[in-house]
User: Fold this.
Amino acid sequence: MAGEAPRSNFAAFATRLLRTDDSAVLRLRRRDEERVEVWGRTGFGVLAMRVLTGTVAPESVVCSALTALDSIRSAPSDPTGYVDVGFALDSAWRGALPPRAGFSPVDSVPAQALREVAARGVEVGRETGGPAGPPPSLLDSEVASVTGGGATVPLTLRTAFALEAMGFAADGPEEPVRVSTTATWVRIDARYGSLYQRREAGPGLLV
Assistant:
């Protein structure tokens, strides 16, 4: 990843991911000849992905988020673009990645609404959680329902937390996030990245 902007964006992604899981790994996958998909599983069980300018060899690499972040921090504007990702950690990545195509658009929702849900979820989590954080039943709560294109898609508190934690949505009351779906995945596209969650209904509504 050559250039200060891609390296800074990479560092921001890894930093935020590590705040949700201090042992997080990254999966780097070639998008095309000039772009790389940077994937991570947040501590909320939601996949986060951002496309950045760069190259990777081999076509897919799994590495420690902390190791890659340390490499970027040590050379924030390295003209060669080299990023030391350390040892390959392929066995640390569980599950297949979502498909690149085949998602059907549902509708857009205000990012601010999900931010407000996340803030309320933090308050409830402090009341009901323990040392390990909010209970799974709270994280799986359905906090919004998006309808369009002949489909109704529930969004859980996991998604609201992940959107806020990764900083993918820009500020502003009118800033939208777009929801699309396949039979097995829900995708939330925001200005600075995308989130992916398995289509599993939560036990109840938070708001």
